[in-house]
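Please describe the entry underneath.
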Amino acid sequence: MNSIRKLIPFALVVAVMASCKVGQNYKRPDIDFPDTYHGGDSLRDSLLQGKKNMASVNWKDFFKDSTLVVLIDSALDNNLDMRKGRMEMDIGYQNLLQSKANFLPSLGASPFKYNREYYSEYYNNYGSNRARRNHGDDIPTTFYTERKEYVSSLQASWELDIWGKLRWQKEAARAEYMKSQEFQKALQTALVAEVASTYLNMLMLKSQLTVSKRNYELGKNTLRIVELQFDAGETTSLAVQQTKSQMLRAKALIPELEREYAIQETRLNELMGRSPQELDVNHHLEDITFDSTYQTGVPIALIQNRPDIAASEYNLIVSNARVGITKAMKYPSLTISGGIGLNSYQIQHFLDPLGAGFAMLNGAIFQPIFQNRKLKTNHLIAINEREISQLDFKEKIINAVGEVSNALVTIEKLQERHAIAAERLEVTNKGVKDAFLLFQGGYASYLEIINAQEDALENQMELVRLKTQLAIANVELYRSLGGGWK
């Protein structure tokens, strides 16, 4: 009872000291968020006015193309960066478990140890000519056995978390683990967006190939008519040469588009973590649609929606925890250690706990005094790193708001350009038909029909590009809002 009473003051002192956590708990810095995104004003009345935030939409629901959904699903399973990210997450989880285990005592054991020491004839406790030989070695006759010892022990050591160092380490490890999770989400959003963009570029090239082949056939028909006119003496050889040149220009686009298509196909295979192979892309650019009944939400929601912003905030939490760790390192540390075991000079008494048993309990306080300024330097560096992390966090938010605003402006202006290009396409297509009819009737020259065909080809290719850019802009808006990881 008396021994217990003696321990009560010590326990109270330890409890009070253990509550003395140094450092400041994390608090999110104040950020001046705008009320709305800048740009895309014309979209607010007709588009993006649904009840569901676009960022919360599952990517399988956002993309309507079944082939694209299969490609994205395969990329998420097999992409090499995604697989490495999952391993990084596991590393972070193991570090978190380790930080929790730091609160527990460490335990070590020496199941059995046998010492046998030999000393020379003139050995003394302060001499330098002491010789130790392992048991079984040849022993000179001038040596004699001084002592044999049999030891078995169990040791424990426990560092009390007086100033919160271990708690800060645990908070840092938890934030690192959560950051790795957010990095994985950010990687997924980027991967989903890149797979979709690459797929859309393939559809664009596929459509442009169709346009080029159709114009090439149209050019061949025009050349046949000009050659017939030349045979009839109704035109010159220059007309034949220029018409053929225009036809070959249309033909030259075909291998170039096929080359670009193959490059995009290779890239898509890389995103899916496999070697180049032919992909079955049987859909067309004209089939691509996006639901326009979603809302963009407000900029402050980006903190919850965008994983890269969440990862940046977790990095700030880690930096704040390191300030606490480096500050706690400047204060005393208290370690309690103990051990129990058996120690005997005679093997027959080794297992006798009354005769050979021992127990010990030690307490040590270590106060760093002079460490060549290392502790102060580490603390000041940690404070500056926390400030840098805070600026990085704010910068990440500003960039994210800018990305959404840019995506809205891009969609708005691409829609305007697409409407103009579609109207122009009707004009140029009618111009080709009229020029061809006039050419057959002898009321138009070959130059007029060549110019009409080139104008139509350019406009058709431009319309395909604009439709693709508009589709990719929708994907970019989805990504910039934080969509793609759900």
About this structure: The first strand starts at residue 52 and ends at 53. Confidence is low (pLDDT under 50) at residues 125-136. The domain at 108-160+333-366 is CATH 2.20.200 (Outer membrane efflux proteins (OEP)).
